Amino acid sequence: MGFESILDLKEPVKGMTRPALFLDLNVDQIIERITKNSPKKSDYYEYFPLDEECENYRRMIYRDIKKNSLYEPLQTFCVKYGEYKELEAKKEDTKVDVQEPVWHFCAIKVYTEALLELLEALQKAGLESEGLISLRDCLKAYTSREEFIYINRVSRELAEEMDSLIVEASYENGRVVVSVSSGDEEDQKEEEDSDDPNRKDYAEYEEFLRYFDPENEKNFVNPFSKVYYLTGFEQEIVKNVEKKNPGLFKKADKLLEDHEKYEDEVFSRLADELGFYLCYYEFEKKMQDAGFAFCEPSCNVNEKISADDLYDLALACVNLEKDKPVVSNSFYYDDKDLFFVLTGPNQGGKTTFARSMGQLVYFTKIGLDVPAKKANVHWFSDILTHFSVEESVETGRGKLMEELVRLSPMMKRQSSNAFVVINELFTTAANFDAIIMGKNVLSHFIREGCHGIYVTHLRELCDVDERVAGLSAQLDENRVQNFKILRRGVDYVGCAENQIIKFGLGYEKLSERLKERLGKA
């Protein structure tokens, strides 16, 4: 039919193994909130599109969803498709033969109506994305087929005929009386009895059964529409209905026999894949309502890689729940820049900023809006991350060895044009060794043509290559961390004084403690 997937231009999405970046960048925490811990939806966030063309394919679809107010009709389609799947499941599970053809035409009715309503919504929208235009054209062709038109018409007719049936059950003189009539017959009966002072109104089915057996806790329902396990009494009613309406059930049996298989798997996949866009739309709207900015990133290779007011989305989610603000930062890569080396005081926001850059590239790569007021991001083949790790009790390796074991496959793999985020490597090594190893790591990824950021306390790494730009975490006028990251040198005197004040290492504090200890001695 031409259209295959709403997520991938070239082939349907396949399952992937969750990459390391999910933990390093706290992307797993973000996805838990986006998908509300739905494993099926979470899987789609683990898959990067095959290439830049596929990334743009998704981005245009998401733009169409936002611009054309398509969230509601797409959500409605997903809900109705879920109802259709439930009916199909009941059809497979029922032990009462007469229920299967009834649920079959009910399922067809929901299925065809869901597709027709979706087509109508897409036809009214001013679509620009290749994906939704292709889906619209596919739906138009599919719903124009003779078979589709036929099963849609017959299923509606059967549903209307079934809905018009009225079953009355009464208990009189020790006998249960069940009568079946059509809606027209009942209307006529009501007109005849409207002036009868002795006319008796019969209770609804469930109410009658509770009256008949007050201690019965079963919630009795329409045996054709709700449950596939029936009591003996319900089965007798089903037989009575079938006996009084043989034509309806013959048509239902024929529809089941002639059109047992009718679903196109493309639409089943569509109903699943749409959750990728819809749950992110819900999440983004919630965050925007709370004051957090999002934007569609531009991907212009002729402009600098940059972002205005970028923030850590995982931290924003946590702080929103605690009613705390989040500090945003802006950055840009000059034409010659490939890497940032970020230095500065401890607890100054360096790791948070590095994570926000990785998240920026991640959400750009999967074709969604990013947490910033404005952004331009080039296409990257992959995202590679390495954050400081603890010693492994299982392996007995020290922290430095654990870091090297994880770093080795990153440097051996084909990483051309990847985006790399490295945080506080080699902190347990001597400064001299850490500088040499850090320079080798940076030089490797620069030779590969990668962009990235390296967070470190080693300012010497800023001099590795002319394509490395230095950033630093700043202090305010009181020499307190303000979590701002700028392209300027580190105020090392201020950082030192900050630590001295924080840990009480100033002359006066040390003198007081010394006098106190001498006094005790």
Topology:
Blueprint: H1 21-24, H2 27-35, H3 39-44, H4 52-67, H5 71-93, H6 99-124, H7 130-143, H8 146-164, E1 166-172, E2 175-181, H9 183-193, H10 205-212, H11 232-244, H12 246-258, H13 265-289, E3 306-310, H14 313-322, E4 329-332, E5 339-343, H15 350-365, E6 374-376, E7 383-387, H16 399-412, E8 419-423, H17 431-447, E9 451-455, E10 468-475, E11 481-486, H18 492-502, H19 507-520
Parallel strand pairs: 5-9, 5-10, 7-8, 8-9
Antiparallel strand pairs: 1-2, 3-4, 3-6, 10-11
Task: Write a concise keyword list for the protein shown above.
3 domains; 521 residues; Rossmann fold; 12% strand; six-stranded mixed β-sheet; alpha/beta
In short, what is this structure?
This protein is an alpha/beta fold and 521 residues long. The protein has helices at residues 21-24, 27-35, 39-44, 52-67, 71-93, 99-124, 130-143, 146-164, 183-193, 205-212, 232-244, 246-258, 265-289, 313-322, 350-365, 399-412, 431-447, 492-502, 507-520; strands at residues 166-172, 175-181, 306-310, 329-332, 339-343, 374-376, 383-387, 419-423, 451-455, 468-475, 481-486. Helix 5 (71-93) crosses helix 13 and helix 6 packs across helix 12.
